[in-house]
């Protein structure tokens, strides 16, 4: 089995290198929209200092879905727009809450939060950012049809927040229907918008020429090709050290690498683990990693045979050598989860131990469940997890299960998973707050928005719902500890792993690095002349 996996990794590496040579220049060079030249700053001379007129180009793997920060639920989109708009608070890489537009706050009652807005912040048109803009921003998210006749898809990120009141020009109060312990950890996902400008020109015109209060101003955008931003000299934390920040959409990993090596871009995201050795051999490139927050799991439809039997689900956990997958297919750039959450997340139950890789025990459990000769199963996934799915299928075949992998377009697959139309699937789910809220409930609460396993346990529902509003940290931890133990025993998933965020940049690029939540916030980046 190990030889099969190692051969697969070798083939991927060779293919990636060949593809990089043939595809990269075409994907990275057809994006000059007249604003900046892709190669204008990509080949810094040794010994020169930072160039204040530099253009930094970042290659991203997916399109930006909207220039409106309230009109999407997409991590890539948010990571780009974070440079154009600012939130009330931000989340540091270590999980610390840092003031941004809000300079301070208090929680006078379990269902009230008061935020004091920093004075002197300017929007890109020179107007002052005040409490009226904060209220407008959240009214637009919370209220039905408040976004040019549409309801914001980010409303679901606001939990029990019901309304926002303006107390004075620089103070707002958030009113909640029930306590929400992770209020502060969710606010970084909502960026503040200019009330007067949007109401004057209307949503459609604003989306054509948006303004925010972030470190960079909007220049132009073709959302599936290129987004061009420029330095905002009046940014309240100080102007960026470069002139232009550009995001180029290059979906293929090998093409992003080829563009980086050719000096056509300065930073790339979504580096595949198998291509890291190729980049590390290049003296002009630096590879950086950080712990990720997207949990990958293998979900089984617990409502249909054979996965309606917990013995079969436990057998799957014993049959799959997750450590081997992490160390070979994923090149060691992932951390295995012992149960449903990573140990570094709040309230992770560290008493849980990973299911032991034990094919004989898996066979025994299958026989006890009435499947001594195995069964047939298709593992459905999308391109991101193709190699892992094929490795899992191979391991299941080793214990007599007729397993195969099938790759779908992600937009087609996920609705089918939510409707319970698939048997076994591999996907991931983000947990940027590093908290059970928004993750365990989304994936395991009965009929919730990401419950692809169709799992339903009344006690788990009770515990997860209680954890959403419990403000006592110790009590909240105990609620989630118990929930995780039940989930571990019920095994609706083959518990998987969390990938590291892997990025690469040219050596002349400074003050950058991947973040656990995947944000590409770059106010301090510099590029050597």
Overall description:
This protein has 529 residues and is an alpha+beta fold. It folds into three domains: 151 residues, Periplasmic binding protein-like II (D-Maltodextrin-Binding Protein, domain 2), CATH 3.40.190.10; 113 residues, Dipeptide-binding Protein, Domain 1 (Dipeptide-binding Protein, domain 1), CATH 3.90.76.10; 206 residues, Dipeptide-binding Protein, Domain 3 (Dipeptide-binding Protein, domain 3, Roll), CATH 3.10.105.10. It is 30% helix and 22% strand. The chain contains 16 helices and 21 strands. A hairpin with a 2-residue loop joins strand 6 and strand 7. Helix 1 packs across helix 7, helix 9 packs antiparallel against helix 11 and helix 15 runs antiparallel to helix 16. The longest helix has 28 residues.
Question: Could you list some keywords that capture this structure?
Answer:
disordered N terminus, D-Maltodextrin-Binding Protein, domain 2, 7-stranded mixed sheet, alpha+beta, Dipeptide-binding Protein, domain 1, 3 domains, 6-stranded mixed sheet, 529 residues, 16 helices, Dipeptide-binding Protein, domain 3
What's this, in brief?
This protein is of the alpha+beta class and 529 residues long. The protein folds into three domains: 28-43 and 50-82 and 214-289 and 502-527, 3-Layer(aba) Sandwich (D-Maltodextrin-Binding Protein, domain 2); 89-201, Dipeptide-binding Protein, Domain 1 (Dipeptide-binding Protein, domain 1), CATH 3.90.76; 294-499, Dipeptide-binding Protein, Domain 3 (Dipeptide-binding Protein, domain 3, Roll), CATH 3.10.105.
